[in-house]
Design a protein that fits this description.
alpha+beta, four-stranded antiparallel sheet, single chain, 14% strand, five-stranded mixed sheet
Length: 439
């Protein structure tokens, strides 16, 4: 959204919980705010999750002409309510106002309908930017975390595991959404000058992590860990404007790169952007040129006391999260203790044979671990013991990043956020103008 790393925005620790009064700092400029001066109509659909405690933080105050969706990180797919800590309420909004007509309707479908409506009513002479953040396939509240209409569940009668079958249904609904949206672009005549960026925001949550059943195997770890199963995302770029389409790229890219890449595509001058952590990677995506990115800081969490960084082929992991509970290898259902390398195939993760000491050769809370990610994406082999010079070099890079980090913005729970105090709705509860006047 900003082209800046979370350690530079204060968003590097956990996620924004609905009853905590903070968000993406107002001095940060969003991609939507950058595109408005270039003449773009800007629309936000679906999940926001960048703060809403004060109205200045909601999407329509951060550069978007419209917003149709929810403010927090999760909710029921049909009722659009959510429980945060001990507070429960309705969280669906249209352009800054509570929007109740969606109650009982499935998120994936109503988001798609709204996106189609915007495209169908759009004036083709004006450029358009749509940020469409699907709720799928994130889990909802713990009482019923995975949800999909029966018509999608019925598509997968051969999947015996009920949770995995529901997960497949949720993915299938999202697949239909992308297909329907693409067809609408074609039908409206917008397709030939459109670029679609589709990406996950993190690795999957398998084996009931976060009440979900994704599958990162054979990659190590889960969502919200520094292992490849947590930081490696899948995605695609689709457009008639791609010079070399239908290929798989293994170049190094980071989410911060979307900002300058999109800004260039929109006609902006990337050299005028300052304080960015992202690179313009359009030539890499379109022409297949080598990515300008040589390093990725996965994160530095000063509260959890863990960090990870990749430079070239090598990755250093320092400390861990969840006291190591999710440091292993998991398929959708649970831990997996063996691995047989599959035949080599473009785009397929392939690792060397798993050693007997895979679970014990790396103890990142005691000493930093080092992996060659190109040769060992499964992080089976900790090569730190015989590469101490490289370990020191990457530790120095982590420290160099850390010097530039800002203090995490996290705030304690504020009981004034309780929806019971606001008609049963999750809405902004802090008046910044009044607060500043009091100060």
């Amino acid at each position: 959204m900003t082209g800046r790393h979370p350690i530079h925005t204060g968003m590097q620790v956990d996620v924004i919980v609905g009853d905590t009064p903070y968000g993406l700092p107002l001095n940060e400029t969003t991609i939507a705010q950058r595109l408005k001066p270039l003449g773009y109509q800007t629309h936000c659909i679906g999940k926001w999750h960048l703060g809403f405690f004060a109205k200045e933080y909601i999407p329509t105050e951060r550069g978007f002409d419209t917003h149709f969706g929810y403010y927090m990180g999760k909710e029921d797919y049909f009722e659009h309510t959510t429980l945060e800590d001990k507070y429960w309420g309705f969280d669906f909004h249209k352009n800054g106002e509570v929007y109740k007509p969606v109650f009982g309707q499935y998120s994936t479908e109503i988001f798609t309908s709204e996106a189609q409506r915007i495209l169908q009513q759009h004036d083709p002479s004006q450029p358009l930017f749509m940020y469409f953040a699907h709720q799928a396939v994130h889990s909802a509240d713990p009482d019923q975390p995975l949800q999909a209409p029966a018509k999608y569940v019925q598509r997968f009668p051969t999947i015996e595991n009920e949770d995995r079958r529901m997960f497949a249904a949720m993915v299938s609904a999202m697949d239909d959404s992308i297909g329907n949206l693409t067809q609408t672009l074609i039908d409206t005549g917008l397709y030939n000058n459109t670029v679609i960026f589709f990406s996950t925001d993190n690795g999957g949550p398998p084996a009931s992590f976060d009440y979900n059943y994704a599958n990162n195997w054979p990659l190590r770890g889960t969502k919200n860990t520094m292992w490849e199963g947590g930081v490696r995302g899948t995605g695609f770029v689709h457009s008639p404007l791609l010079e070399k389409p239908k290929r798989i790229s293994e170049d190094m890219l980071h989410v911060c790169d979307w900002f300058p890449t999109m800004y260039r595509l929109a006609g902006g001058n990337v050299s005028e952007l300052t304080n960015l952590d992202g690179y313009d990677v359009w030539d890499t995506l379109s022409k297949g040129t080598t990515s300008p990115r040589k390093e990725i800081l996965h994160n530095i969490d000063p509260i959890g006391n863990f960090s990870a960084l990749r430079r070239g082929d090598y990755k250093i992991v320092i400390g861990n999260d969840y006291k190591g509970k999710w440091d292993g290898w998991f398929n959708a259902i649970g831990p997996v203790d063996d691995y047989n390398p599959p035949p080599l195939k473009p785009g397929r993760v392939s690792c060397p044979p798993r050693p007997a000491n895979a679970t014990t050769n790396c103890k990142p809370t005691e000493k930093p671990c080092l992996f060659n990610i190109r040769n060992d994406p499964c992080e089976f082999y900790n090569i730190a013991p015989w590469n101490q010079d490289l370990v020191k070099e990457l530790q120095a890079r982590v420290q160099a990043w850390n010097v530039t980090a800002v203090t995490p913005a996290n705030q304690p729970i504020d009981p004034k956020a309780d929806p019971k105090l606001h008609g049963g709705y999750w809405v902004p509860w802090v008046n910044l103008t009044q607060s500043r006047a009091i100060v």
